[in-house]
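Worked Example 4.2. Consider the chain below.
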Amino acid sequence: MSLLDILTKDVIAVPLMSRDKNGAIMELVQLLKKSGEISDVQSVYDAVMLRESKCSTGLEKGIAVPHAKTTAVKKIAAAIGISPDGIEFGAIDGKPSKLIFLIIAPPDQSGKHVAFLSEIARLSQYQQLCDELASARSVDRVMAILQGEE
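Applying the procedure from the previous section yields the following structure tokens:
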């Protein structure tokens, strides 16, 4: 499963307006609602925050992957937020997260959920790609980078 199989311009925030983890997650959840991907903002937000309370989803290299499973979504959905200054996500390397990938999946689609998380993990291995995404200043630029266009 590819990022491009799920992402559209409607679910990319460049830049994120929020400056903290809770606000960033809510901002991305609201994008998913506005795009018609989820049915209920509060239940999705609560599910993500419950998951965050168990273990931070801040990875390394400026990436965070808040995620949850909920019946408020029919199929896997995702949103990306770019935070030029970074947001504290309790990352493994202690650095702020500039790329926030929100993933929401139905409870019965664990395989797709894991596949999508793996795709983001693979992406994180390419520092130049991550740096390009983090410095993107438009939704079109994010899409071009993900599509491999220069």
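The two ends are 23 Å apart (CA to CA). The chain has a mean pLDDT of 93. Compare this with Example 4.1 before moving on.
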